[in-house]
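Quick one: structure tokens for this chain, please?
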Amino acid sequence: MKIFVGISGGVDSAVAALLLKRQGHEVTGLFMKNWEEDDTAGHCGAEEDLKMAQVVCEHLEIPLRTVNFSSEYWDRVFSYFLDEYRAGRTPNPDVLCNKEIKFRTFLDHALALGGDRIATGHYARVDMAAGRFRLLKARDGAKDQSYFLYLLGQEALAHTLFPVGDLTKTEVRHLAQEAGLPNYDREDSTGICFIGERNFKSFLGRYLPAQPGEMRTLEGVIKGKHDGVMFYTIGQRHGLGIGGEGEAWYVVGKDVALNILYVEQGEHHPALFSQSLSAGQLHWVSHEPLPWPRKLHAKTRYRQPDQDCTAKAQNMGLCVKFAAAQRAITPGQSVVFYDGEECLGGGIIESAVPITQTVAAQSAQR
């Protein structure tokens, strides 16, 4: 087949291209530039990534194309990112980037160039059962990225290969070293490309004006000033600037309308834990809604162990109740559902009721 591989400069995509070439496919590398704002060394690092991608493709003796998707990224991903922060939520742009850029814009571009498939270095797997494509967890549980891919559908999976999904990270690096790839020991990229290593507050403040306000406990005791509720996320510990003795302070809630950031002391404070959540903007990999209610496993953040839960329909979304209380469930993030190794789909977390409020409500009813 004629396969376009998304080459990022990292070892995973390089090994993906290596494996496909060894299988006899016609492989072309494609480097995507998705960000142009303030693209300087130490921030996005796109120039350094491109140089590595070029060296990798030269070593593999495959052509490399470059394409600029910055406009699409701004319209389809970054605008949503800003809107969510403006509303006081904490979005996960990597999830939307996969759907809109890597497995939509990139896929359309590759097919227009005559490609049969696209491939990436994601740690995930695809198979077919009962006439539909399934998105599966990677064999390396520590590197599995299916959480970030739950928005993919049948069309994308039909044209996508994940060559490293059956390998561990150690095996990937070993293959790269054996093949003489120059990036076999290159560190994995972390964070969001357009933010990079720079200060998150100063970056976000360039697009959304800061609105300082009060930090209060749930009882209303003022503990300090915040720089703007949009800069903080549920469960955050660092950057609060609250001194004094005792355990560390954590963000437990945000009131965007009143511009109040709620904080409490202690990693295990009950206000950090919720037994249930509401989710909307649902997407199912098979495109077929599941029968409700049903017992599933779910993750509310990447690398979290699967959590037992029961989900039932609620308005246009789902109410998800967990067998065990979950820490720092964050509106704007994704809840992703699994049945064993299969990723079924997921949705955006709209709200979660802390245990403290649940107990208070039950007491009031009594």
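The longest strand covers residues 342-354.
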